[in-house]
Amino acid sequence: MPAYIVALIDIKDPVKYKGYGDGRDFKSFTEDYGGELLMISDEPEVIEGELNGRLVVMKFPDRDKARAWYDSPEYHDVRKIRWASSTTSMTLHPGFDVDAALAARASGE
User: Fold this and answer.
1) Nearest to 38 by CA among 16, 58, 13, 68
2) What is the mean pLDDT for each group of 10 consecutive residues in the chain (109 residues)?
3) What pairs with residue 37 in β-bridges?
């Protein structure tokens, strides 16, 4: 089942943070870990509540690949740039299998 990493990033030092984007290994992210960058949004239309900062959503084939990417040597050093230039909340979420949910509903589970 797919897994998603969602990050809310409040960039404090844009000049230093640029090194984070420049230093990321997107080839490894996609080829080695199956990552997909689904969204980067700096200007959302907030329709309820509050949201400050950049919202990033990444998709991985499964939870293990997502954790492997986060803990990988390719990401280890570059994330230190993000830590030094921003405040981040990053969460890992399981995907939702719509077909399985509909089948369970149909069978009365």
Assistant:
1) 58
2) 96 93 84 95 91 94 96 91 95 90 82
3) 58
67: Cβ–Cβ under 8 A, 6 or more apart, which residues? 92
Q: How far apart are CA 2 and CA 6, in angstroms?
A: 13
Output the pTM of the full model.
0.85
The enclosing H or E element of 78 equals helix 73-85
Nearest to 74 by CA among 3, 22, 23: 23
For strand 86-94 and strand 54-60, is the pairing parallel, antiparallel, or unpaired? unpaired
Give the structural domain span for 79: 3-106
CATH number at residue 87: 3.30.70.100
